[in-house]
Amino acid sequence: MSSRILLVEDEADLALTLSDLLASEGYMVEKAADGFASLAQTTSRHYDLLLLDWMQQKKTGIDICR
Questions:
Q1: Residue 26, by phi and psi: left (phi above 0), alpha (psi -120 to 50) or beta?
Q2: Which of 8, 15, 21, 43 could pair with 38 in a Cys bridge, judged by C-beta atoms 3.0 to 4.6 Å apart?
Q3: 22-58: pLDDT as tens digits
Q4: In angstroms, how far is the first alpha carbon of the chain from the final one?
């Protein structure tokens, strides 16, 4: 079973690049465009790893961790 990763990145090109790279290594990657969307996803699903954009406009990676 591969690990499930939630990638939180507000820059679409970077999110696609990172997602493709991780998927090519066998990870199951889901994306969220901002911190609010990521919080909604984490309440309904389990992830083995959250990759958070540190600086976002709506909610920072630090806010999500709290």
A1: left
A2: 8
A3: 999 999 999 887 766 676 777 778 889 988 877 666 6
A4: 29
Let me know if 64 is exposed, middle or buried by CB neighbors in 10 A (0-12, 13-18, 19+): buried
Q: Helix/strand/coil (H, E, C) string of 22-43? A: HHHCCCEEEEECCHHHHHHHHH
Nearest to 38 by CA among 22, 20, 62: 62
Checking phi first, is residue 62 left (phi over 0); if not, alpha (psi -120 to 50) or beta? alpha
Percent of the chain with pLDDT over 70: 76
